[in-house]
Amino acid sequence: MRFRPLRALSERPLRLPRLRPYVPQPSDPPIFWFDSERKDIVREVVQRVTQRHTADRRRMELVLNETALAEIRRLESQRDAESRERLPQWRGLARRIARLSDVEKRDAVRDIVTRYAEDVAGNFDPRVYGFSKQAVPKLLAGVMAPSRLPEELIGETLIGELLRVEGDIEHLRRLQDRGTLVYVPTHSSNLDSVVIGRAFEQVGLSPVVYGAGKNLFTNPFLSFFMHNLGAYRVDRRVTASVYKEVLKTFSQVMIERGYHSLFFPGGTRSRSNLIESHLKLGLAGSAVSAFANNRVHGVDRNVYFVPATINYELVLEGETLVEDWLKEEGKARYIIEDDEFSKLDRWIAFFRKIVGLQAACIIRFGRPIDCFGNEVDDEGHSTTPSGRSIDPGTYVERRGKPVNDFARDAAYTRELSDVIVDRYREETVLMATSLVAHVLFRRLVRETPGLDLFARLRVRGEIAMPREELIAEVGALRDRLVHLQTQRVVRVNDAIATLDPRVIVERALAVWNGYHTRVAAKELEATVTAEDPTLLLYYQNRLVPFATRVVTNAADEAAAAEIARIGGRR
User: Fold this and answer.
1) 3-state DSSP assignment of residue 375
2) Which of 420, 310, 323 is CA-nearest to residue 367?
3) 263 within 8 A of 192, measured Cβ to Cβ
């Protein structure tokens, strides 16, 4: 079965004007060489996946039947241009599988894998990268604050005021020259890939290849940059196991070849705003396997994982995400097509709302670790908790020789996942909106004993706190979090670490007011009312893992214990 490439009109990227091709230089980041290697990378992915599924007739029949059935189900539910074109082909294949010769089956498997690999593989154009470094911050600044556009055009960067990058950046700069970096950040918003890309530029880290949901390619403007800045397409609607294998193999080959990479191990955006604790291990496993396979072939290139947290004062799609979580539609409606991210007016309202906020988004890069969860020193050497240097290659050896072992790598990946989750909690930066939401939601829980979570969410505008009491409790919460920060438990936004609690409360109320369609909390005379418990729940969820450790009032202990159970404590 021969597949012809299909692109919906909305997925066609804007075309780059005809310019002189860029010739990569030896000093350029690895990704600058991607386009010259793309065909060879796709060829290698196709060869590896095809070989694994064409060893015998039974395996070929199994993969063909499973893939055809999965694609027929998907396309029948989509009812779009792709469905009209592809559905007859898949139905025809499903009817013919039993009559195909072994050679025809092998060719059909290769055609399917090739189609998937070509659809996944992205591009990287250094000219677009150079343009985006100069133009995108100014464009966003023009949307956020038109009155400041003239100063942006002469070099002042509003984005730099809104985005703060934290962590040992010098360490990461050294490591990116000694091995392959794999960034694994938390995922709260579709803005994440935009802001973390800007963070790399802001602090001088190399650009990366990264997976992006195919639904994000439907916007022609955004698609233009994603098509040309290293994004590979992940179609979450495709459930065929061979497609997932193509994704993992593509990621593995890229890491084997030294391309710095990024993926969100939480999978999709955290609809609840809880700190991720259940990670999807497929792509993380591809990095572990890449390290092992390189050692098997005599390539001594280390792979370093960099846990990172992306922390927002205001989340662009927060209102839709939390509703989706509460309705448990995250399972049935895996890709949200109609949230705030897809609406230009919500973008403009969001950006203009955060103008004037210092550090409205903080990206914090945690301490890097190797594939097996060990700390990494300044020279890139893996170390034990006592500080002794160890060779990570010994983890993939059997009788003194490196070998590939899928089951072993899967076990290492599970252990690595636990370390990353712990790092997420340590490196989460709590913002003013989370602190104020937590105090208000805790009071709501305290005042509604016996109700479950969903019953409490219907208690709108009935629970209020005296303003001065709210300010006092926010101050006590902030001080407790600052203390926990000294123990490397969690972090607090530097901008609020020393602020008067009164200002923290005013800041949170100002951030919420006028952006979301509902009001999270309302100030009336001397009281502050919990107007929308759902939004308060969303913003306070960032503190769920610490709820029992930050309570300072005995009357709030039972409420804190209930909050700690939200989402299931790890």
Assistant:
1) strand
2) 420
3) no
Name the one residue in this structure whose structure tokens are 């469905």: 83
The pLDDT tens digits for 408-448 are 999 999 999 999 999 999 999 999 999 999 999 999 999 99
What are the angstrom distances between the C-alpha of 568 and each of 172, 231, 491, 556? 34, 33, 22, 20
Give the tens place of pLDDT for each residue, 43-71: 999 999 999 999 889 999 999 999 999 99
What is the C-alpha radius of gyration for the chain, rounded to an integer number of angstroms?
A: 25
Helix H segments across 232-317?
241-256, 282-296
Residue 339, C-beta contacts closer than 8 angstroms, at least 6 positions apart: 317, 320, 321
Tokens 């935009």 label which residue? 194
Phi, psi of 261 (to 5 degrees): -130, 165
Position 234 scores a pLDDT of 86
Task: Name the percent of the chain lying above pLDDT 70.
Answer: 84
Q: Is 404 within 8 Å of 518 (Cβ atoms)?
A: no
- How many angstroms separate the CA atoms of 186 and 199, rounded? 14
The amino acid occupying position 519 is V
Residue type, 263: F
In the chain, the percentage of residues whose pLDDT exceeds 90 is 59
So what's the pLDDT on residue 9? 37
Q: Which residues of 333-366 are buried (b: 16+ CB within 10 A; e: fewer)?
A: eeebeebbbbeeebbeebbebbbebebbbbbbbb
Contact 207, 226 (CB under 8 A): no
For tokens 């880290």, what's the residue? Answer: 205
- Name the pLDDT band for 135 (thresholds 50, 70, 90): low
According to DSSP, residue 124 is labeled B
Q: Is the pTM of this model over 0.85?
A: yes
Q: In the chain, what are the helix, strand and coil shares in percent, each to the nearest 5? A: 55, 10, 30
Mean pLDDT of 460-486: 96
The three-state secondary structure class of 113 is helix
Query: How far is Cα 169 from Cα 192, in angstroms, rounded to an integer?
Result: 19
Inter-residue contact 556 to 447 (CB < 8 Å): no
Closest CA to 381 of 365, 393, 398, 396: 393
β-partners of residue 390 are 382
